[in-house]
């Protein structure tokens, strides 16, 4: 089961000095197995050939260690929560093809991460990461994005686009912004998933549900 793969990999990572991988090129056997399961959730993530935004594309193999690290960092161990979070990442990033918003062209300034955060949440997420404090304060010390230029919005976004941050964005959001619905999400029910979508500010459309069902099936 994918849950067991993630659980064992997370426990192993927590025994190390840092839970964040330094490379996605050398996978542990557990991470390699997780990558195979992630492919079931994001079926188009096996290759970046002909990707519309080549510099932003990542494969399931590249994503696996960072997703494992993210679940460990934010202490997400419920199989239903992991499935839901992975489904959101797969949907929002177009099977890991995008790290910033491109639609409508040229894209909304400041929107991005693998969870495709709006700029206000990009700022909140960046503020939550201690090692980014100095760089973020050099851009803005504001607590909101109101009145910030497009260049500043994009500069804030750039701070959280590296792999060690972008893959953790959805996990951070669940644990910090959606605490009130976690018990419902943990039931694994569609009602719980819909509550999660409500917290994200979206509806459980058919295409979102399809990703969630793929993720749920990958755990069975």
From TrEMBL:
Keyword annotations of the record: Signal
Signal sequence segment: 1-17
Source species, domain of life: Eukaryota
Official protein name in the record: Uncharacterized protein
């Amino acid at each position: 089961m994918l849950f067991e793969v993630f659980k064992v990999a997370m426990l192993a990572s927590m025994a190390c000095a840092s839970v964040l991988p330094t490379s996605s090129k050398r996978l542990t056997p557990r991470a390699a197995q997780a990558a195979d399961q992630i492919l079931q959730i994001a079926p188009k993530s096996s290759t970046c050939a002909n990707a519309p935004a080549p510099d932003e594309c990542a494969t399931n193999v590249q994503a696996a260690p960072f997703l494992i690290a993210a679940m460990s960092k934010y202490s997400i161990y419920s199989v239903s929560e992991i499935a839901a979070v992975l489904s959101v990442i797969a949907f929002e990033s177009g099977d890991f093809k995008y790290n910033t918003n491109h639609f409508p062209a040229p894209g909304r300034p400041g929107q991005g991460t693998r969870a495709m955060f709006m700029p206000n949440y990009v700022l909140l997420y960046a503020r939550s990461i201690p090692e980014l404090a100095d760089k973020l304060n050099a851009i803005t010390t504001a607590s909101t994005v109101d009145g910030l230029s497009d260049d500043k919005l994009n500069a804030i976004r750039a701070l959280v686009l590296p792999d060690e941050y972008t893959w953790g964005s959805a996990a951070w959001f669940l644990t910090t912004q959606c605490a009130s619905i976690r018990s419902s999400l943990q039931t694994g029910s569609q009602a719980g998933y819909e509550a999660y979508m409500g917290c994200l500010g979206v509806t459980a459309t058919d295409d979102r549900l399809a990703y969630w069902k793929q993720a749920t099936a990958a755990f069975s």
